[in-house]
């Protein structure tokens, strides 16, 4: 607003759709409607969050999957696998598919929805790998290779998970589905 007058004479310009375009449209509304500083600050924060959101959860190769919205380089820290730290005995009694063993004594139960890493699916040809820190308190997921925006994040769940969950049903990762592109397309619909 310059001198108490709106910058637009009639209506704000129409912008194309998309995350950045949506953010710019918010700014157009702010300028057009002469909204106050507090609202402007809130809109700015929402815009930054909207533009910088690192991941999206959407339908992947095995149900819901975690997809990156940004490019990742080989060796980049992607995300931490978080959750309740419980004893392995408690984990064995609870059961569940979101248990990640730190060592023989401790396990992370990552079933809470705030743990976005729980949506990373298994692959026999993964683009990420997990690593447990030296104090055995944290599980970090790293990029195994270059990963482009829009790609699903995957890592190999390991032998025990394979024997318990995957082998009886057969693996359905893109590597194991191989040439069966129709089945893969059906899974991703």
From TrEMBL:
Record Pfam families: SET
Record's keyword terms, sorted: Chromatin regulator, Membrane, Methyltransferase, S-adenosyl-L-methionine, Transferase, Transmembrane, Transmembrane helix
Catalytic activity: L-lysyl(4)-[histone H3] + 3 S-adenosyl-L-methionine = N(6),N(6),N(6)-trimethyl-L-lysyl(4)-[histone H3] + 3 S-adenosyl-L-homocysteine + 3 H(+)
The enzyme's E.C. designation: 2.1.1.354
Residue intervals of the SET domain: 53-158
Keyword Glycoprotein part of the UniProt annotation: no
Membrane-crossing residue ranges in chain numbering: 35-52
Top EC category: transferase
GO molecular function, one term: histone H3K4 trimethyltransferase activity
Keyword Acetylation set for record: no
Superkingdom of the source species: Bacteria
PROSITE patterns on file: SET
Gene Ontology process terms (BP): methylation
Name of the protein: [histone H3]-lysine(4) N-trimethyltransferase
Native organism: Candidatus Kaiserbacteria bacterium CG_4_9_14_0_2_um_filter_41_32
Source species taxonomy: Bacteria, Candidatus Kaiseribacteriota
């Amino acid at each position: 607003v310059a001198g108490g007058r709106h910058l637009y004479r009639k209506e704000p310009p129409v912008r194309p759709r998309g995350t950045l375009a949506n953010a710019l449209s918010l700014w157009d509304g702010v300028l057009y409607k002469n909204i106050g500083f507090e609202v402007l600050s809130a809109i700015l924060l929402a815009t930054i969050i909207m533009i910088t959101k690192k991941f999206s959860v959407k339908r992947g190769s095995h149900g819901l999957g975690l997809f990156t919205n940004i490019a990742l380089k080989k060796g980049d820290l992607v995300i931490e696998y978080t959750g309740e730290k419980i004893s392995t005995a408690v984990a064995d009694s609870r059961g569940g598919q979101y248990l990640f063993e730190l060592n023989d004594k401790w396990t992370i139960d990552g079933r809470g929805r705030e743990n976005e890493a729980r949506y990373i699916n298994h692959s026999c040809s993964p683009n990420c790998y997990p690593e447990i820190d030296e104090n055995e308190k944290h599980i970090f997921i790293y990029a195994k290779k270059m990963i482009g925006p829009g790609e699903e994040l995957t890592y190999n769940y390991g032998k025990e998970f394979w024997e318990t969950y995957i082998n009886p049903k057969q693996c359905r990762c893109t590597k194991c589905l191989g040439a069966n592109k129709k089945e893969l397309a059906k899974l991703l619909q």
